[in-house]
Amino acid sequence: MKNSDKEISVYIHLPFCERKCLYCAFTSFVSSEDMQKEYIKHLLKEIEKFENGYKAKTIYFGGGTPSVLRLDLLEKIFDALKTKFEIATDAEITMEVNPNSVGEEKFKFYKKLGVNRLSIGIQSLNNKTLKKIGRLHTKEEALNKLKLAKRYFDNVSCDLILGLEKEKNVVKYAKKLIKFGVKHISCYMLEVHENTPLFNLVESKKYRPLDDEAVAKSYEKLRKFLKKQHFNQYEISNFSLPNFESKHNLAYWSYDDYVGFGVSSHSFIHGVRYENSSVLNDYYEGKTYSETITNDKEIEERILLGLRCKNGVDLEKLKKMGYFLEKNEFFMQFLEKNILKKENDKVYLNPNYYAVSDFIIEHLFP
Ligand SMILES: C[S@@+](CC[C@H](N)C(=O)[O-])C[C@H]1O[C@@H](n2cnc3c(N)ncnc32)[C@H](O)[C@@H]1O
Ligand code: SF4
Prior knowledge:
- This protein is of the alpha/beta class.
- The chain folds into two domains: about 5-250, TIM Barrel (Alpha-Beta Barrel), CATH 3.20.20; about 310-365, no CATH class.
- The chain has helices at about 35-50, 70-85, 105-115, 125-130, 140-150, 170-180, 195-205, 210-230, 245-255, 280-285, 295-305, 315-320, 330-335, 355-360, and strands spanning about 5-15, 15, 30, 55-65, 85-95, 115-125, 155-160, 185-190, 230-235, 240, 260, 265-270, 270-275, 290, 315, 340-345, 345-350.
- The strands form four sheets. Strands 9-10-8-7-6-5-4-1-11 form a nine-stranded mixed sheet, sandwiched between helices. Strands 12-13-14 form a three-stranded antiparallel sheet, with no helix packed on it. Strands 15-17-16 form a three-stranded antiparallel sheet.
- Helix 3 (about 105-115) links the parallel strand 5 (about 85-95) and strand 6.
- The radius of gyration is 21 Å and the shape is globular.
């Protein structure tokens, strides 16, 4: 479609899962076909209502588990996106999938639709753990699907969760994934959310995740291992081979505009943040919250987002907004201690300190 000079990143939330994992607090539901159809009807309307004239530079289908969606319904979303947006010729188009809900037919179809990046939820390669946390796939199935995925897609990322098991296991899993040709690994520290079955299991001591110290050790081991494998850490939980960073996530962290369609999605457009309701019926009724970002809030967010990833913070931009980071005493100390690095007009956090970024960042706020 049309030529557009305004660029944007597009997120589509598909809240369907075959079963809820015991740890997961994302907005997602076990869905019937009717529910999928109803949801897509509202999603298409939402896309249609969006302002014209944007070029989509990245598109990310997240969830939930987008690979649970029927292919004809997925195709309708692509049609709506192509009608609404000019899609950049080099757009990164990511689909989140999990091993139990994909196969060759879906991979082929995704490729035909224009998907060029897959993010596979692997979590662990230990069958006992997978069962305990409510996953529907085994280690063998995960590796088979990964092998198949690699036949169709070069740019494949895998998710792992840290803290589920023994410290060194996560390194073993990463090693295996790299052997299978994975170019990007996201590794999240296990969060035990109050309203999940895992919380009750932990409370009743039926499940014992790693303690904080062991998680920190495990994370350090993984970081060292991935560095040796030439995977650059470009954010606290994200590692990739050169040029395989997620452009979509980097757009969030660069303070670029993005639009999210679907229940619980967020958007950030011309300095206003929007949040769709995470209650399905409220979303259907169009309930959205919005907040205009003030100058001071934007300064804080630019520091927070920029330092948490390889983008860094643009000092000139902050100056134009009235904030001189060089005048902050902690800033100079962090530079001396090599915690921060300054290059031209940009400042970066040394990746060795990503895990304690909150502490450093809060000392740099206005
Ligand atoms: C929205 S899920 C989508 C992936 C896909 N549905 C799947 O499960 O394979 C994205 C990722 O978030 C991570 N995640 C979800 N809940 C988590 C939790 N409580 N703690 C840590 N990571 C979590 C998992 O690694 C998961 O792959
Ligand atoms: S981790 Fe993925 S599959 Fe499991 S409940 Fe959450 S979104 Fe669904």
